[in-house]
Amino acid sequence: MHQSSNHSKFQRMRRRLDLFRQKKEEQSVSHPLRACLPFLCATGVLMTTVVTAASCTLCYRVDAQGQSLAFFHDVATYDAAVSQAETRASKILETQYSLNQDLSVRATLAPKDQIESLSGVTGSLMESIPELEHVYTLSVDGTMVGAAQDPSVITQALNLVKERYTTPETRSLHIDSQVDIRYQYLPADTGESTAEEMAAALLAQSPRTFSYTTQPGDTMESVTALFSMTEERFRELNPDLTLEPAAPTASSPLDELPDNEAADAQVSAAEEPSPDSAEADSQADENVIDLEALLGDQLQTPLEAGLTITIEQSCPLLVVSTVEEMNLTREILPDLETQEDDTMFQGQQRIIQEGEAGQSSVLSRVVKRCGVPVASNDLSAVTLSEATPLIVGTGTKAMPELPDGCLFLWPVQGPITSEFGYRFIFGENNFHRGLDIAAAAGTAINAAADGTVIFSGEKGTYGNLVILSHGNGFLTYYAHCSKLLVQVGDSVTQGQPIAAVGSTGRSTGPHCHFEVRYQNNPIDPLFYLPGENNAPVRTEPPEEEVPPAEEPPVSPETPEQPTEPVEPNVPAEPSQPEDPDSSTEDPAAPPEELEAGGGAAGQASPSPSP
C-alpha cells in the first residue's frame, strides 16, 4: 500500500513537469513576434501618413446649419462665391438678398478631388438658399412657359403640341420657334407645371408677323382672307408694295350667282329705249349674266408671284410647320373658242356651246404653318374628265358709224383689268358688258364723245353712274364714280370731265367701268377707241362740233363745268344690289326722242343661239 501511494505521487509530478515543458516551448515560439510588435506599429503609422499626404490637402470648409457645403483653397474664393450667390439670388427674387444663414468657415484636411472652384462653391451656396429651387424650365422665343423637377414633363408637353398638327397626310414636322430648356434657379413659390398646362400655354393664340412668298394666282384679297387679315393691316405691313389695279380672277369663290332674271333686271329703262326693243333684248339676253354685277365683290388686286411680303397671322406661341401630301380634286377650266358670225355686228357675241369644267386628281405637297397653307407644289396629276370648250360666236358685220365718223376718246388712262366679252369664270359662262379701266381715286372721267346726259345718279351695282346719249342709237356708261359733275339734260363735249373715278357700288377698288351700247346692245368699246389699251386721252375737242341727230333739247340752265382738276374723293360705301322686284320706277328714264330711236327687235345681241 505504501508502494502504491508513492507511485501515484510520482505520476502527478511527471504530469506537472510535462506541462511546464509545454509552456516553455510555447513561450519560445511567441517571443520573436512580441519583439517585433513595436516595429510593426511604427511602420503602419508611417504608411498611413504617406497615403494621406498623397490624396488629401489642407483647405477650408464652409458649413451651414451643421452640414458641410463645400471645400475650397482660400478665403478669397469663399468671399467671391458669397458675392456671386447674393447677386444671382437678388436678381432671381427681384429684391436685395443677403446670405444670413449660420455659415461657418474652418481649416481642414480634405481629399484633393473634393476641392471646388469658384463656380462650384457659388452653386453650393445657391443650393443652400431656401427661397430658391433648382428646376428644369421651358422657354419659347424668350417667353417662359413652365417649370418642372422632371425634364420628361417638358418632353411630354412638346409631344402633345406635335400631335395637334399631325395627320395621316403629314410627312414631316418642324418647330420654327426658338425653344430653350434649362436647369436653373427660380423663386421657390414659382410652382411646377404639368405637361397639359405647358401644352395649353404653347398653343395659346396671338397675332404674329411672318414673311410670306407670294404664289402664282395670289391676290391681296386671297392673302388677307387666308391669314384672316384686314386689307388696311396688309397695307400697313407692306407700305412700299406697289399694288396692281383690282381685276376679276377665276380663282375667287362665289357664294351665289344672280339668276338670269335678276341680271337682266339690272338694265333699267334708261338702257331699254322702247318697249318693243326691251322685249327683244330680254329674249336675246336670256342666257347673259352681267359680269360687272356678278364680279363687283370679286374684283381682286393681283400680286406678282415670288414677292416677299409681310403678313400677320394668329398663331400659337410654339410655331410649327408641317409638310403634307394630299390628293385633291381640281377643276380644269375650259378653253375659249370663237366662231365668226356675219349676222352680228363686230364686237357682239353669243354663246354657241356652253363650256363645262373638267376635273383632275392632283397629288399635292402642301407646306403649312400653324395649320395654314403657305406654299404648295403638285407632284402628279391625273385627268378624271376633260373640259368642254366654251364656243362663242363673234360678229363680223360692219359696225355702224358714230356721228361725224369720229372715234370715242378713252374716258380715263390706265390698264384694262377686265375686258369685254364672254369667259368661263367661277364655274359659269359669264358676260362682261364693258371694260374696267384702273385709275387712282379722284381721277377725272371724261366724256368719250359729244352727247347729252340721260342719267346721273346712283344705280344699283353700278354705284354712281353717268349715261350719255350720242345719237344714232349709241350710249356710253361710266360707273363706280366717286363724284358726279353733270346732271340729266346737260350737253357735254368730248373730253369734258363728267365724273371722278371711285369705287362705289359693288367694287373693291377704284376703277372706271366703261360701256358702249348700240341700240342697247353691248359692244366691245375697243372697236371705237383709238390706239392700244393705254392710249393717251386727247384733250383737244373736235374742230367741228355737229350736234347729234336725235339729241333731246339742251337744258336752258346748263351748269358751269369745272375748270380745275377733280379733287380726290373718298369712295362712298358700296351700295347693295337693287332688288328688281321691289321697285317699278326708274330715275333714269330717257327722253322720248331716244325712245323713238330705239333698236329693232331683230338686232343681234350677246345671247345664246336659238
Automatic annotation (TrEMBL):
Positions of the UniProt region annotated as Disordered: 241-283, 525-610
InterPro entries, per the entry: Cell_wall_metabolism_enzyme (IPR050570), Dup_hybrid_motif (IPR011055), G5_dom (IPR011098), LysM (IPR018392), M23ase_b-sheet_dom (IPR016047)
Keyword set includes Aminoacyl-tRNA synthetase: no
Residue spans of biased composition, Low complexity class: 268-277, 557-570
GO MF annotations in UniProt: metalloendopeptidase activity
Keyword Magnesium among record annotations: no
Record key words, sorted: Signal
Entry protein name: G5 domain-containing protein
Pfam families: G5, Peptidase_M23
Organism this protein belongs to: Evtepia gabavorous
Domain of life: Bacteria
